[in-house]
């Protein structure tokens, strides 16, 4: 063995004790074992005077475990008064600033500061995940509310919490110098493209608040979300810049080291105490001290010592996913990169081999945590990371300079920001392109089975790689590398193709499906027993049949075609030839009946009611439709779903444009509806009056990805936001299912089909 693994023993013991509660009996057994091993140190030595006993590792492991356990025992065991669900008056605070969800709720990790019990306040800090369906001032720090609590199964918090009353703000935070600097940086970067504006703060100091939901999803799906968390590379780059400046001024070695540690500490204060930042800062500081006293760069030992110190300070970090990802990624890079670089070096240039090795190493060791968080993995993570890797040094280095000068020289910073801004914009584009590729997010078995499989796979890969590099026996090395190759071939040949054919099961209780038919409309109303009412069939190449089969629709008692344009009628030929049973074929008065055999006109005022859903045709008026442009001949239909919680209305606007819709609404005034299908794919000529009149909670927009028409128009989205509607778009989410529950309208995105 050429690597000193004793630090890993220490970290393993500390982490185990931080994550699990050690039973008293087992704790005494560990103490007895430690005493026995320490006693062995007193025996007569037969090996070399300076050799390390074989049981050094277990001793270090037990010391780490017992140290954390002692801290846990002596620490306050604070919790809520009951074990199960309960309601309490409590004072709380979010751990960090939270951004309202599209539903207007505030969600995030929070702390119960104290709660009211038996006529007095009980001081007790309890970590929770809080949902707040009320507005809160952006600088609110501490607030009071009536809160319901439900036990959480696992994680970094013990309880799910939901505020039941409007919060009363008790204290507000005042912006400090760090926040002022971040605000100043945001103001000078507002001329950059949207992706650059959203990503740069995250890539420089871990602030993701500027990312919208779509960009965040794209970064996760493409495996690039780690770029917007401060990591060791940020600290290393900062240290390199400072070291260069110190050398320019010929600062002696000891003051240089102290100044560098102070600068890292200042950066940590600026960014905030995220687990990855704390790990990287502490590790960097210890590395500087190690070099200063001539101990060299023992990366594995420094990582283990840093992580153990953090666990001693706060044992709850042991269950924090961000802490685990930071430690495991660094561990993988330290342990596996040399072996992988050597392997890849046989088929790649050395620079590419090293970059590929770093990406693979981090993903191997982080796989169990990633699976535990979301039960899928990114198929294109490796190539996307390799694509963006050359851009990162430029973004970080110049970005940091811009951050430092944005206050004294804002004009210079504004111009200079284009240098990191354009690559950051490209990173966002690459993430969005990668996330849109077929099979971008692949499923993995859920639950304990999936986590165990991931741990086993990661462990096998790590053991084979380390054994192949560390052993001095050629035979063992050959066997390890051969087994490693066999495992990788197995993964490539079996698991990946299998996941490509996997389709997630669909909840059969969905009510409305907005099929992703590209630039067109294809809406399905679920009427039960694998039957649906179809409103439009999309364009000829829209694959509406594929969507219906995915939804397990075998019969369509009614097919509405709102008007004759190809993006609504083009898919009818494929539908007629699909074998799916079709009942009534209904069109508006403006449709030429000879274009569709069996079609009949349905006029305004027509109604139909079933046990599950009814419809009422609002327009167009027959005489007006015969003289109008095709868009204005669109069928406008109000559907009403009869569900357990009451009646839910869906208003289908077809492609009817502003003036025709305005006239229709004047003649037939409409009450609000829960769901609205945006007229004309969200085009500006679809108008905003219909959105304000219907005032929906959900706005459906069926539009092709990167369509040349610019659908949906920003004005439509602005008005939707103004009335509080949540927007679902096929160009962003693919096929969308809406399910009506007692808690409201729930959405599910099935993604885009393979066209």
From TrEMBL:
<feature type="transmembrane region" description="Helical">
    <location>
        <begin position="300"/>
        <end position="317"/>
    </location>
</feature>
<dbReference type="InterPro" id="IPR036866">
    <property type="entry name" value="RibonucZ/Hydroxyglut_hydro"/>
</dbReference>
<dbReference type="InterPro" id="IPR004477">
    <property type="entry name" value="ComEC_N"/>
</dbReference>
<dbReference type="GO" id="GO:0005886">
    <property type="term" value="C:plasma membrane"/>
</dbReference>
<feature type="transmembrane region" description="Helical">
    <location>
        <begin position="20"/>
        <end position="42"/>
    </location>
</feature>
<feature type="transmembrane region" description="Helical">
    <location>
        <begin position="385"/>
        <end position="406"/>
    </location>
</feature>
<feature type="transmembrane region" description="Helical">
    <location>
        <begin position="351"/>
        <end position="373"/>
    </location>
</feature>
<feature type="transmembrane region" description="Helical">
    <location>
        <begin position="54"/>
        <end position="73"/>
    </location>
</feature>
<keyword id="KW-1003">Cell membrane</keyword>
<dbReference type="InterPro" id="IPR001279">
    <property type="entry name" value="Metallo-B-lactamas"/>
</dbReference>
<protein>
    <submittedName>
        <fullName>ComEC/Rec2 family competence protein</fullName>
    </submittedName>
</protein>
<feature type="transmembrane region" description="Helical">
    <location>
        <begin position="224"/>
        <end position="246"/>
    </location>
</feature>
<dbReference type="Pfam" id="PF00753">
    <property type="entry name" value="Lactamase_B"/>
</dbReference>
<feature type="transmembrane region" description="Helical">
    <location>
        <begin position="253"/>
        <end position="271"/>
    </location>
</feature>
<feature type="domain" description="Metallo-beta-lactamase">
    <location>
        <begin position="517"/>
        <end position="578"/>
    </location>
</feature>
<feature type="transmembrane region" description="Helical">
    <location>
        <begin position="447"/>
        <end position="467"/>
    </location>
</feature>
<feature type="transmembrane region" description="Helical">
    <location>
        <begin position="479"/>
        <end position="502"/>
    </location>
</feature>
<feature type="transmembrane region" description="Helical">
    <location>
        <begin position="323"/>
        <end position="344"/>
    </location>
</feature>
<dbReference type="Pfam" id="PF03772">
    <property type="entry name" value="Competence"/>
</dbReference>
<keyword id="KW-1133">Transmembrane helix</keyword>
<feature type="domain" description="ComEC/Rec2-related protein">
    <location>
        <begin position="203"/>
        <end position="467"/>
    </location>
</feature>
<dbReference type="InterPro" id="IPR052159">
    <property type="entry name" value="Competence_DNA_uptake"/>
</dbReference>
<keyword id="KW-0812">Transmembrane</keyword>
<keyword id="KW-0472">Membrane</keyword>
């Amino acid at each position: 063995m050429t690597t000193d693994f004793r630090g890993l023993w220490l970290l393993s013991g500390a982490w185990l004790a931080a994550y699990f509660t050690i039973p008293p009996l087992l704790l005494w057994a560990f103490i007895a074992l430690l005493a026995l091993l320490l006693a062995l140190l007193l025996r007569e030595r037969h090996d070399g005077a300076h050799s390390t006993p074989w049981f050094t590792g277990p001793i270090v492991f037990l010391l780490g475990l017992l140290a954390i356990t002692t801290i846990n025992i002596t620490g306050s065991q604070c919790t809520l008064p009951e074990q199960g669900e309960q309601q309490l008056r409590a004072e709380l605070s979010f751990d960090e600033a939270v951004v309202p969800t599209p539903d207007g709720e505030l969600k995030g990790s929070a702390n119960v500061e104290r709660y009211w019990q038996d006529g007095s306040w009980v001081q007790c800090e309890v970590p929770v995940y809080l949902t707040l369906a009320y507005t809160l001032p952006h600088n609110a720090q501490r607030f009071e509310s009536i809160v319901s609590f439900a036990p959480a199964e696992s994680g970094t918090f013990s309880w799910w919490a939901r505020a039941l009353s409007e919060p009363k703000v008790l204290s507000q935070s005042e912006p400090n110098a760090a926040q002022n600097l971040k605000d100043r940086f945001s103001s000078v970067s507002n001329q950059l493209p949207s992706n650059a504006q959203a990503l740069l703060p995250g890539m420089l100091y871990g602030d993701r608040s500027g990312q919208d939901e779509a960009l965040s999803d794209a970064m996760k799906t493409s495996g690039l979300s780690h770029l917007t968390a401060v990591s060791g590379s940020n600290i290393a780059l900062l240290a390199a810049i400072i070291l260069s400046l110190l050398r320019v001024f010929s600062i002696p070695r000891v003051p240089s080291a102290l100044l560098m540690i102070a600068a890292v500490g200042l950066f940590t204060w600026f960014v905030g105490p995220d687990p990855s930042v704390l790990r990287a800062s502490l590790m960097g500081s210890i590395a500087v001290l190690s070099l200063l006293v001539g101990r060299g760069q023992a990366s594995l030992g420094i990582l283990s010592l840093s992580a153990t110190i953090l666990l001693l300070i706060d044992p709850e970090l042991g269950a924090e996913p961000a802490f685990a990802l930071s430690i495991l990624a660094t561990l993988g890079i330290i342990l596996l990169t040399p072996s992988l670089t050597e392997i890849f070096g046989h088929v790649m240039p050395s620079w590419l081999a090293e970059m590929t090795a770093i990406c693979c190493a981090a993903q191997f060791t982080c796989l169990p945590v990633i699976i535990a968080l979301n039960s899928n993995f990114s198929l294109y993570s490796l190539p996307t990371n390799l694509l963006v890797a050359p851009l990162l040094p430029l973004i970080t280095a110049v970005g940091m300079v811009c951050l430092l000068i944005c206050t004294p020289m804002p004009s210079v910073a504004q111009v200079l920001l284009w240098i990191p801004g354009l690559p950051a914009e490209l990173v966002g584009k690459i993430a969005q392109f990668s996330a849109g590729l077929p099979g971008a997010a692949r499923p993995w078995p859920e639950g304990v089975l999936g986590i165990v499989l991931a741990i086993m796979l990661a462990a096998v890969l790590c053991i084979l790689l380390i054994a192949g590099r560390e052993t001095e026996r050629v035979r063992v090395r050959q066997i390890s590398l051969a087994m490693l190759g066999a495992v990788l071939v197995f993964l490539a040949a079996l698991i990946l193709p299998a996941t490509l054919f996997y389709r997630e099961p669909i909840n059969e209780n969905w009510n409305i499906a907005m099929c992703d038919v590209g630039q067109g409309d294809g809406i399905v109303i679920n009427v039960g027993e694998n039957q649906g009412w179809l409103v439009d069939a999309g364009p000829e190449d829209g694959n509406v049949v594929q969507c219906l089969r995915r939804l397990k629709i075998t019969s369509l008692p009614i097919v509405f075609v709102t008007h004759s344009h190809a993006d609504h009628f083009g898919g009818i030929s494929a539908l007629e030839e699909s074998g799916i049973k079709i009942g009534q074929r209904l069109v508006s008065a403006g449709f030429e009946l000879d274009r569709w055999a069996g079609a009949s006109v349905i006029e305004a005022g027509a109604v139909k009611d079933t046990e599950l859903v009814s419809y009422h045709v609002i327009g167009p008026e027959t005489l007006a439709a015969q003289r109008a442009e095709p868009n204005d001949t669109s069928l406008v239909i109000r559907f009403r779903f009869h569900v357990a919680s009451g009646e839910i209305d869906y208003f289908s606007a077809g492609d009817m444009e502003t003036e025709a819709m305005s006239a229709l609404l004047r003649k037939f005034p409409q009450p609000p509806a829960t769901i609205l299908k945006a007229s004309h794919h969200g085009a500006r000529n679809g108008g905003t009056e219909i959105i304000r009149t219907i005032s929906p909670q959900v706005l459906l927009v069926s539009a092709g990805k990167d369509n040349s028409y610019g659908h949906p128009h920003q004005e439509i989205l602005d008005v939707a936001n103004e009335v509080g509607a949540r927007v679902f778009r096929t160009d962003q989410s693919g096929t969308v299912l809406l399910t009506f529950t007692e808690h409201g309208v729930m959405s599910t995105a099935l993604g885009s089909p393979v066209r």
